[in-house]
């Protein structure tokens, strides 16, 4: 999990990042046991340790969450649609969208609880419960029971993604986050890439002569059991926030917290009250971040739920080929996503990367829609999935980077992903059954949203650049109330 770090100077994000706390009387630094500054080699060694402790289990959990929420589309074409009569009316779309109701509502309560209970215990509990829900889906006998379980699944999966982004934002500097958020999101691409292949393999299982001869049930049963096992393992292997990390010495905790503070204060995390949390939300920029993530999420979810159906019904591939061909575009997307996130951190640019990826998605969607021969349309799917998927971690990093306060980062991630759940509802409804096989309204809605994303991201970044310039010239007070802070445009 190692990534090569750029040479770090403790003044680039923080005019005195080596200081150990506020110095009201001029003597506090001398009183601390960490008066000796750390050097670059010590910090780089610590960052490598952090990478290995933060990411492995976090990536596994997130990958399973994407697999478990997306397996409905695989089961649908493996016989679920006929057995539970999901083709009647809007039953399939309803089963998809109820997930996002609880998912949207419980983002904030979860991020509010995670600091108080601890990430290790809280996230592990969520994983175990949602694994049990997925397991139960393998035994349902009607679409109503399936829909209820999907609604409960949304409630318990709600805390994982914003909690993980909150954890990453609590460990890393401003221009360390894009690469690491993309590395974390790599789990989603792997899950999405191999999910159809795994689902196809599981759908071949046959047991007895009753309901368990239906292969789609084993997709839920096996994946649910796997998730429960991983949730139990997470109690031992999942890391926590810096102040609660038992694998760090006191000095390492001090360095880990001090290096990300932009207000020259190596202070402990202060739990915001409900009133303070609501006050943090009253910031017009939050609406922009939320809109950006809404667009990113709606495109990703629509492709996730309907790509196999588009391949099967729209491009004419048989069931087996539709499942297998759904994987390569996601595997391809891993490499440009990681490459562009590296460029974004290395050269400290955000908007050119985000806008480029949005335009790539737009071009890909047009090719899928009007490409003519199936081979060319399939090529368009590669471009569309790369552009849509890559802007998920990029957009999350963008919102986190404009927020100096660790406490507020938790609010930002929860708000963005809550609105992303609304994007999931949109993504599961704009592709209507009556629009098959080309889904023209849904495709053009997704294209229009990508155009709006590019315009909004460019305009917001130009605003940030202007604010940075005015602050450099001394014409503005401290940005975000923090001396020395600059936006990442």
UniProtKB/TrEMBL annotation:
GO CC annotation: membrane
Transmembrane annotation, as ranges: 54-78, 90-109, 121-140, 152-172, 184-205, 217-238, 287-307, 319-339, 351-372, 378-399, 411-431, 443-464
Organism encoding this protein: Polytolypa hystricis (strain UAMH7299)
InterPro entries (alphabetical): MFS (IPR011701), MFS_dom (IPR020846), MFS_trans_sf (IPR036259)
Sorted UniProt keywords: Membrane, Transmembrane, Transmembrane helix, Transport
Membrane topology: Multi-pass membrane protein
Compartment(s): Membrane
Biased composition (Basic and acidic residues): 1-12
A molecular-function term among this protein's GO annotations: transmembrane transporter activity
Region (Disordered): 1-30
One Pfam entry name: MFS_1
Domain Major facilitator superfamily (MFS) profile: 54-469
Claim: Transmembrane is one of the keywords in the record: yes
Protein name per the record: Major facilitator superfamily (MFS) profile domain-containing protein
């Amino acid at each position: 999990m190692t990534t090569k770090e750029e040479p770090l100077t403790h003044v680039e994000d923080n005019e005195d990042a080596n200081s150990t706390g506020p110095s009201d009387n001029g003597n506090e630094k001398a009183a601390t046991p960490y008066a000796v500054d750390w050097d670059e080699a010590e910090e780089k060694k610590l960052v490598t340790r952090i990478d290995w402790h933060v990411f492995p289990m976090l990536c596994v959990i997130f990958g399973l969450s994407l697999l478990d929420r997306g397996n409905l589309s695989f089961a649908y074409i493996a016989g679920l649609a006929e057995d539970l009569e999901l083709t009647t009316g809007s039953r399939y779309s309803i089963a998809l969208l109820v997930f996002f109701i609880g998912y949207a509502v419980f983002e904030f309560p979860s991020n509010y609880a995670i600091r108080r209970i601890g990430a290790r215990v809280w996230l592990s509990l969520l994983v175990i419960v949602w694994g049990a829900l997925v397991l139960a889906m393998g035994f349902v006998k009607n679409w109503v029971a399936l829909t209820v379980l999907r609604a409960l699944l949304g409630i318990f999966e709600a805390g994982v993604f914003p909690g993980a982004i909150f954890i990453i934002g609590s460990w890393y500097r401003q221009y360390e986050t894009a690469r690491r958020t993309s590395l974390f999101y790599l789990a989603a691409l792997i899950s999405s890439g191999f999910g159809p292949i795994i689902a196809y393999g599981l759908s071949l299982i046959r047991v007895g002569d009753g309901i368990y001869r239906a292969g789609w049930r084993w997709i839920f049963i096996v994946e649910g059991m796997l998730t429960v096992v991983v949730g139990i393992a997470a109690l031992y292997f999942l890391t926590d926030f810096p102040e609660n990390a038992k694998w760090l010495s006191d000095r390492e905790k001090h360095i880990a917290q001090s290096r990300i503070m932009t207000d020259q204060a190596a202070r402990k995390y202060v739990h915001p009250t409900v009133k303070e949390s609501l006050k943090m939300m009253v910031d017009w920029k939050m609406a922009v971040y939320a809109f950006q993530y809404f667009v990113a999420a709606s495109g990703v979810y629509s492709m996730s739920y309907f790509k196999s159906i588009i391949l099967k019904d729209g491009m004419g591939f048989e069931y087996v080929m539709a499942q297998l061909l759904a994987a390569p575009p996601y595997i391809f997307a891993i490499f440009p996503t990681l490459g562009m996130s590296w460029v974004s951190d290395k050269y400290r640019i955000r908007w050119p990367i985000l806008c480029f990826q949005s335009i790539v998605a737009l071009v890909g969607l047009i090719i899928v829609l009007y490409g003519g021969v199936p081979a060319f349309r399939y090529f368009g799917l590669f471009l569309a999935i790369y552009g849509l998927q890559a802007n998920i971690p990029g957009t999350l990093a963008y919102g986190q980077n404009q927020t100096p306060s660790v406490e507020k980062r938790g609010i930002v991630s929860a708000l963005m992903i809550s609105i992303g759940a609304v994007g999931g509802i949109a993504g599961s409804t704009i592709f209507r059954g009556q629009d098959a096989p080309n889904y023209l309204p849904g495709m053009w809605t997704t294209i229009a949203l990508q155009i709006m994303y590019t315009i909004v991201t460019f305009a917001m970044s130009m605003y940030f650049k202007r604010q940075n310039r005015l602050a450099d010239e001394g014409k503005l007070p401290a940005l975000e109330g923090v001396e020395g802070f600059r936006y990442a445009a």
